[in-house]
Amino acid sequence: MRFLALTASLIILSPSLRAADTDSIDSVIKAVYDVISGPAGTPRDWVRFKALFADGARLIPVRTTPQATAPVVMTPDDYAEHAKPIFEKSAFYETELARRLETFGNIAHAFSTYESRHAPGEKPFARGINSFQLVKMGDTWKVMTIFWDSERPDNPLPEKYLR
């Protein structure tokens, strides 16, 4: 019984678990950007990150090379493992520029236009669109999928996704 009480108190006091992160579509999307952003060498809060996602969630970047274009499917754990060494060496700050949102019942889709920087206020080194699919579970919103593609010379961001 003491173990359960201690565990409950640690969960309540944990900075990783922020109830407000999943209160709304806006808060969960902002929390994703917040968790992945920070200076080089600063550990990200991967417990908080994973808590933003529904069971079975996926993160899927579209990788384009001169030879082919292909999606790379990852779980939130896979993403964290892939990103950790990158964030150890490089600062990374991603911010949302604009959002287009559609909802129906317990599902939502947000086209979230982003900019990536190595420091706040710096010129972006990348831009693109994160396509968030979200699900409402009780009183919370969770990310089901983030599917994204980057802006390239042959793939400029349309004006309608910049406002």
Describe the structure.
It is a single chain. The chain has helices spanning 2-13, 25-36, 46-51, 76-89, and strands at residues 53-64, 69-71, 93-104, 107-117, 126-137, 140-150. The protein has 163 residues and is α+β, with helices and mostly antiparallel strands. The chain has a single domain (22-161), classed as Roll (Nuclear Transport Factor 2, Chain: A), CATH 3.10.450.50. A 6-stranded mixed sheet has the order 2-1-6-5-4-3.
Question: Key features?
Answer:
163 residues, alpha+beta, Nuclear Transport Factor 2, Chain: A
Give the topology.
Elements: H1 2-13, H2 25-36, H3 46-51, E1 53-64, E2 69-71, H4 76-89, E3 93-104, E4 107-117, E5 126-137, E6 140-150
Parallel strand pairs: 1-6
Antiparallel strand pairs: 1-2, 3-4, 4-5, 5-6
What low-confidence regions span 5 or more consecutive residues with pLDDT below 50? 1-14
Provide the number of structural domains.
1
Question: Under the CATH scheme, which class?
Answer: Alpha Beta
Can you count the helices?
4
Q: What structural category characterises the helix and strand content?
A: alpha+beta
Number of strands: 6
Give a quick summary of the entry:
The protein has 163 residues and is of the alpha+beta class. 27% of the residues lie in helices and 37% in strands. The protein has helices at 2-13, 25-36, 46-51, 76-89, and strands spanning 53-64, 69-71, 93-104, 107-117, 126-137, 140-150.
